[in-house]
Amino acid sequence: MPVRIGVVVFPGSNCDRDTLHALDLAGAEPVALWHEQATLDGVAAVVLPGGFAYGDYLRAGVIARFSPIMRAVAGFAAADGLVLGICNGFQVLAEAGLVPGALLRNASLRFSGREVAIAPERLDTAFTHALDSHRPLRMPVAHGEGRYYADDDTLDALERDGQVLFRYVDRVGAPAGPGDPDNPNGSLRAIAGVLNRAGNVAGLMPHPERAAEAILGSDDGLGIIRSLVESAGRAVGAGTTVGARSR
Amino acid sequence: MTSHRYAVNVTPKPGILDPQGRAVEGSLGHLGIEGVSAVRVGRRVELTVDASDQVAARAVVERLAAELLSNPLIESYEVELLGEASSTVGAVAGMVGEA
After folding, report:
1. Of B19, B43, B74, the CB nearest to A102
2. Which of A25, A231, A244, B72 is deepest in the core (most CB within 10 A)?
3. What pTM was computed for the model?
4. Nearest to B74 among A58, A66, A149 (CB)
């Protein structure tokens, strides 16, 4: 039976349909979850999709963070449930303190909508294990507030503890630092995606769901979606999902 | 119950790159203005709180400022009391700083 994975829909989400479609392609049974829900309907994993939740007013992600469903998401994450935030979803996770750091206005002050290359730092995580190598993955970014920021001590700790999940890379696969044109927003240490300390919550600015089939120009993103679906399936099989436990 | 009008001034913390501030600074030459530096662009939020007294009102504003209006990783804030009135009716219009 396909594993049920929830996609949270906030007012202003605009990548929820693409994400539901990509999850379907990866073999899951995708379920849309409205932001006013107080429960997650027993799904095995949750995706916070891209968009402009609440118009990105005040700071991107901050108002969505206080949606009723986010209390359930935080509880799910605390109980080892798998949560992936994409673009605006990453901003929501960062504002909620579920992943470290903050996403600031792009250094260019311009919205960045283009294809980038990101390389996975680790292939042994719930979000990357289906990737076959550290080969750079091509997929789009589309954001105005994506410059990853944390203080130096935090950045050192993230690198030491294996919490950097993806980095923007240049043509030869080397990390693209803040001043490099292959870094679309000026992210510190080229960070495009991070993990929480426990490894069950991840966020990234690029859009794997927009690069999930060849007709879109790249299917490099599907490996990330498939990793999540397979990890969620394993969690269900082992009876360790939060939903399974609470029934 | 009294109404208290506050402002919360949110600014990027020192050391955080502020591209908006930099862009403003870069434009000063076009105005023929010299001698201005270290421009930082923040945000100001004004609000009215109904509470039993000023201490209670301030506690609400502090919580709001810390949890919602600013992100402590990247921003700092200052709470500023603009004025108060004994009833909600007409409170806003009559307050200091409400031109």
Report:
1. B74
2. A231
3. 0.90
4. A149
Pairing state between β B2-12 and B75-85: antiparallel
**pLDDT given at position B97:** 43
Contact between A10 and A36 (Cβ < 8 Å): no
A144 versus B97: the higher-pLDDT residue is A144
Tell me the residue type at A221.
G
Write the DSSP symbol of residue A58.
S
**List of long-range contacts for B14-18, beta carbons under 8 Å, 24+ apart:** B16/A104, B16/A149, B16/B74, B16/B75, B17/A104, B17/A107, B17/A147, B17/A186
Element at B83 (helix H, strand E) = strand B75-85
Single-letter amino acid code for the residue at A94: A
Structure tokens at A74: 């935080």
Span A167-176, average pLDDT: 96
CA atoms of A104 and A98, how far apart (whole Å): 17
Is residue A31 over pLDDT 70?
A: yes
Q: What is the least distance, in Å, from the CA of A136 to any CA of chain B?
A: 28
Instruction: Quote the minimal CA–CA distance from B15 to chain A in Å.
Output: 10
- Distance, in Å, from the CA atom of A114 to the CA atom of A181, rounded to the nearest integer, reads 12
- Structure token pair of residue B75: 């921003």
For residue B43, the SS3 value is strand
DSSP-based three-state secondary structure for B11: strand
Tokens standing for residue A69: 């469903």
> Which tokens belong to B76?
């700092």
Of A35, A34, A26, the closest CA to residue A3 belongs to A26
Q: What's the one-letter identity of residue B36?
A: V
Residues of A with CB under 8 A from a CB of B: 58-59, 62, 66, 95, 101-102, 104-109, 147, 149-151, 186
The verdict on ipTM greater than 0.90 is no
- Judged by DSSP in three states, A67 sits in coil
Residues in A closer than 8 angstroms to B16, CB to CB, are 104, 149
